[in-house]
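re: ur question from yesterday

yeah so i grabbed the chain u mentioned. its 241 aa long if i counted rite. heres the sequnce exactly as i have it in my notes:
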Amino acid sequence: MKTVSISNCGRIKLNSFRPLCLTKSGLNAIKEYNLSPFIDASCRREPDFENPYPSISALCRQGSFAPHLKVDDVIVYMTIGRKFQPFKKGYHLVSILQVKEVYETHEIAKNEYLNSDLPIPSNCMVSNNPPNDFVKTGGNFTSKLREKQFLNKTDIEKGKIGKRIIKIWDAEYLNKSKKWKCFVKTEPLFVNVDNPPLISNLDFNHIFGKIPNTRTPNLIAEKQLILLAKIAGLNLKLTND
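ran it thru and got these structure tokens back, copy pasting raw so excuse formatting
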């Protein structure tokens, strides 16, 4: 088991997201473009696990999460509990991140990432950083029936519809980024977007006494973080420098 140290551990939050492998559209994207199954499914990856320093913004939960993060806070990301083909049904532990920087705006974040020779994160709403094409997302359909109807269309029809959807989808994200301007850079302590470990019901009962609700990300205790880290194969050491 790998030993990882966290210095000056701040508040610890447990969050969830919808991975690309959740939908038929996402599975098509994984196969067609060789994408990792457990990256975020939207046109702006939120969070962006693909960046060497994963980023978090307010595009998803707006004012309820990212604006409250501070340097040294730790975020544990798991999937929602679903069946993900061809993986086991349940909740998968995808990442443990520690906040390194909190930027006031997306533009400042872009410049800092570039100055560090890092790619601009997908969820950074700045010019010359377009969203992912619709065919590289899990879709944003309101039902499986609507997704099925879309997938049954011709490639030309899907291309035209996809462009319209992305235009609206990205405009919604842009409006959110103007209202909630913060942008968070993290250091990955653990990230597995290809075959992340499953958190079993026994694990949840042992760690929390129940399956936690992450619609509004909850604070968790250091002891609970350490136990979750063990599922990820980490021997976590918390230190105060």
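noticed a couple things. The chain has a mean pLDDT of 95. also The CA atoms of residues 8 and 240 lie 5 Å apart.
anyway ttyl
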